[in-house]
Amino acid sequence: MKLLGFHNNKQVVASVARHDYRTIGEGEDRIIMDGGQDLDGHGWYGQCWGKPIWIMVPQTFAELYNDWNLNKPRKYGLWNLEDVRLLSPEEIPDTESFEWRAENAIWGTNGPDGKSLTTYVLLKDCELGHLEKISQLLESRKNLPFSPIEEIEQIKEIVDYWIKQKS
User: Fold this and answer.
1) Are 49 and 69 in contact (CB under 8 A)?
2) CA-to-CA distance for 102 and 22, rounded, in angstroms?
3) Closest Cα partner for 138 from 116, 155, 125?
4) Strand partners, 54
5) 57-81, pLDDT tens digit by residue?
6) Is 146 helix (H, G, I), strand (E, B) or coil?
7) Burial class of residue 31, CB neighbours in 10 A (0-12, 13-18, 19+)
8) Is the pTM of this model over 0.70?
9) For residues 127 and 64, what is the distance between their CA atoms, to the nearest angstrom?
């Protein structure tokens, strides 16, 4: 996954969720990132300290999000600079593009029986039947009072894109 992070020439921090505050170091070596990644095209939110950098890590966004959401202590979010691949300017993603959002969009699931702990999966990795059920659920949520219609439509567009790809 390509991530925006902040570094101090030794380590890099990357935040994955809106309230994911990551920090390491002290004094001039302190680096901070809070506010997640811009995966919805609405711009990056948060605070930071250090030098911005785009990196590539082997984990998917779903793995990183599950780590933030479920693991105490966490495995990811803090890396030594030499352990990540630095992206060239040509490799930096267009975070406002549909392709970027579709490639990294996640869905929280409680498993087929609905009784499992909520974990997140990449929508692109869901089976066709699962995607069809998600699309139907999103369509029904549009009619609920106070529904975030714009967000629902954005997610549904991605789900329907993957349905077409798998049909």
Assistant:
1) no
2) 26
3) 155
4) 4
5) 999 999 999 999 888 889 999 999 9
6) coil
7) buried
8) yes
9) 21
Structure tokens at 109: 């699931």
Q: Which residues contact 40 (CB under 8 A, 6 or more apart)?
A: 101, 151, 154
Residue 44 reports pLDDT greater than 70: no
Phi-psi region of 84 (alpha: psi -120 to 50; beta: other; left: phi over 0): beta
Contact 107, 121 (CB under 8 A): yes
pLDDT at 40: 60
Residue written as token pair 């711009």: 43
Torsion of CA 93, 98, 102, 108, to 10 degrees: 110
Cα–Cα distance between 77 and 154 in angstroms, integer?
Answer: 27
